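Can anyone check this?
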Amino acid sequence: MSNRREKIDPRQMEFDWDFPSKLEKVLHEREELKDKVIEGPPKVMKTENEFELCVLLAAGIKKAITESGLSREQMVDEINNYFGRTAEEAAKDDPVCRNPLTIHMFNNYLSKPAECPIPAFYLFAIHHVTESLEPARVMVEMEGARIATGSEIRQLNIGKLEEHIIEIKKLKKELQCQR
């Protein structure tokens, strides 16, 4: 028997025995993503009529308001602030804005969307105030598209970079073989 001691570096990592299963999971997810890219967006949803669209949009707005934690009164105030609406500015001879939105009108937009559909320009303020794209998601998904978050866009860009890197490596190999 030898008296020699094994010198093991304490900074050396141990082998991760779960690595093969993690690698398989990543490869499986990558294949699923490729399949989804090939399939394309889901089929467009059809609605019965325009009233149903108004109801769906109002539901998206209500969801955004609920998730933001604001009351409807606060939403009305924030929408008026977003557009710079005041009664004084609207009453001028040369008005720079419309009359301020009232809570009663806002409630009508949300409670009776088929009778009183919300004007589209309010969506800009609602998205800004609630910091939610839920109302836009309702419209976009009707056309078979999806809204991407910032992190999803970054992941998409990383995927594109990886594809370009793979293509560059292939071309590099081809050029080296031709020498």
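Reply from J.R.: I decoded it. The helical segments are 19-39, 50-68, 72-83, 87-91, 103-111, 122-130, 134-142, 150-177.
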